[in-house]
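DM from R.C. (forwarded with permission)

"hey, sorry to bug you on a friday — could you get me a structure for this? deadline for the figure draft is monday and I only need the backbone to look sensible"
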Amino acid sequence: MAIDLLKEKIFASDVNTIKQSDMWRLTADKTSDGDITSNLERVDDASFGLIGTGMTESSGVFSFPETGIYKVDFIASGVRTVTGTDNIEFHIFSTIDNSNYTLLSYGVLGAYGGQLYDQGIISTIIDVTNTSNVKVKFRTASHADTNTVINGSSSSSETAFSFIRLGDT
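My reply, with the result:
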């Protein structure tokens, strides 16, 4: 009897499992500062595995498919070709009222002289309590005069955004 109760708890249907997992990417190089608002696509490689319905995107603003706690990653790849000191910032912003955005995570790809390719990842955890109001967007900024690029590609995820629902809110 005790073993049956234990099995029932272990294999319960309401166990908190990953119900949503999605990944998007930048499809073309971005050479200007500001929000990433275009050239975005859901990863479409043959081996990509979407779980659930996935995120929706409009002008760079991502909406969540259901409430819950989400891990959001921004994988940035860039190149700087200016001599001297320069860097590329990348940011994750979110809103809980569909209007006012707050910086949640910040990263820097840095260089000193010459041409340097670099990649970095920043992450945050977001409590999505309302799918109409809680949204996320991504931004880049550079501290160089010219020749600073966030890499994009439609055939590989050079700069990408991942969303994984970890559990209930």
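R.C.: lifesaver. Helices lie at 2-10.
me: no worries. The two ends are 33 Å apart (CA to CA).
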